[in-house]
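Lab notebook, page 48
Experiment: co-folding of the full assembly
Goal: obtain a model of how the components sit together before planning crosslinking
Operator: M.T.
Materials (sequences as entered):
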Amino acid sequence: MNMNKKNNTAWSSRSLASAFAHKIFYYAIRIAGRGIAYFMLFFVVGFYTCIPKIRNRSREYRIKRFGERSFLGELTDCFRLQMEFGKMLVDRAVMGILGEFIMSATEQDKQTMTDLISQGRGLILITGHVGCWQLGMSVLDSLDVPKAVVMYRDDSDVDKHYFEHNKKTNELPFTIIDPRSPMGGTLEMMNVLKKGGILCMMGDRNFGSPNGIVDVNFMNGNINVPISAYKIASAMEVPIIATFSHRTGAGQGQIWISRLIDVPQNLGRSMDAYRPYAQLFADGLDEFVDAHPFQFYNFFNMWKNAE
Amino acid sequence: MSLKDKIKKTLVQELDLIDINPNEINDKDPLFGDEGLGLDSLDAVEIVVLVQKFFNAEIKDIEEGKIALQSVNSLAKFIEEKQ
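Observation: model returned without errors.
Model output:
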């Protein structure tokens, strides 16, 4: 997780569209709301779906999830996948511009989070690039503890996060920790947990370092996932919950707890010691993909480097 | 045993640095990166915990950590100041 090294990931957080194209969507949302943005999205996604290079980005996932399909089937799957992703981006922008998004959770899941937080040891939420993960933290607003998100942004990324739309306030709903900062941001992460806070991390992608990753089974293949969450949890005796959120409709989503991951204390430096806990996360991700196949947004071949 | 020697021994033992002899660690060697001990950011988590556990010194934030976690020298200085 040494972020001082050059990022050599197979993926990028950079948007396909230009900054100007994003602004058109933002203006449309300001003037006419979510509906017009969804309508425009239909044509944008249709355009991108016609480009083989773009389709290829999700090809490995689609083959693993849906099997070999006819050309028309492939186009349909790709369109639906990208449309869901686009709607999530629109919802994110609407949340930032108009403040409209409803994220729900079951009472049982809310209680589980509250109980874990009340232990005062801090809590790590580990999630993946699925559903409406970028809006998932909004369900935690009612919890009065420090919150931080480990977030990597490509330097040339032009798409705005929902909290970046409102320039009038400097108050962010959570602290953002850049994994490229000195020592991978681990000290900031520990600081949040020491205060009994919530740390949200992504469990399905590494940020380019060959260190700090293990291979786990996911969708009948191996992928590399980071172990930083499990290592911090082990060193600090912090509980982890694997959570995933999915869009349930226009401007609506639900976050759910997939599983509680209890990492034993003092597992040490061996990467292998953390594999079983990373596998638990991957199992949760597998279940999510099974239930919501078009809300999986890792648009690169995750299996390429681990097999 | 001097504080620096104790730090070296603790690092080697607690981080399972099996190929490293504590006596061979230079006080000025960087703890992180390809030179020196070659530790990475995940090891920083363990160092922060063990500094508190064995030396009763808390690294509270990134600014303190950046200064303290440069070398055995800087770590010893930090611990002395906190004790």
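Interpretation: Chain B is about 55% helix and 0% strand.
Next step: discuss with group before ordering constructs.
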